[in-house]
Structure formats: C-alpha cells, structure tokens
Amino acid sequence: MSFLSPALLWLLLLVPLFVALYIALLARKKNTAVRYASVSLVREALDRRHSLRRHLPAALFLVAIVTSILAIARPTATVTLP
Fold first, then answer.
1. Residue 54 within any structural domain of the chain
2. Which residues on adjacent β-strands are paired with residue 75?
3. Are 18 and 65 in contact (CB under 8 A)?
C-alpha cells in the first residue's frame, strides 16, 4: 500500500498533542473542582465506576481524527488479477 499524498501523514504528529491537551484539561478541571466545591460533592462527582465511559467521546474523536488524516493522504493499493 502507498499514499498519493504521503506528506500529509505529518499531520499524525498532532495526535500526541491532542492527547496532551486532553490530559491537561482533565487536570485543570479537577483542580478547579477541588478549589470551589466541598469535598463531599467532589467525591460524589468523581465516581470511579463510570471513568471509562467518561473518556469514550475523546477516544472516538481521536480515532476519527486519525482516520480522517489517513483518508486525506489517499491510500492506494495495486491489485493484480489473474
């Protein structure tokens, strides 16, 4: 398999930047919640049972970005028929 526009694959380097930004926003949100809310309210809001479901939209967004970048690079394959 090859790509018609392989230079666009450099956009995949933005993926770790998106992950770092997401982690930074989560840390910022946690610090803000602890600063302005009571401790019991924070414990109730940070329910550990649904922690994976909370990150599912961000993970799906990341998969969509990677898939879009790969599609923009226009992959091609040569198929030989007998």
1. yes
2. 3
3. yes
Enter the pTM of the model: 0.70
Report the domain count for the chain: 1
User: Residue 9, Cβ neighbours under 10 Å: how many?
Assistant: 13
Measured between alpha carbons, how far is 75 from 60 in angstroms, rounded to an integer? 22
CB 11 within 8 A of CB 72: yes
pLDDT in tens, 7-47: 999 999 999 999 999 999 888 766 665 555 566 666 666 66
Residue 34 lies in a domain: yes
- Is position 81 within any domain? no
- Percent of the chain having pLDDT more than 90? 57
Tell me phi and psi for residue 27, to 5 degrees: -65, -40
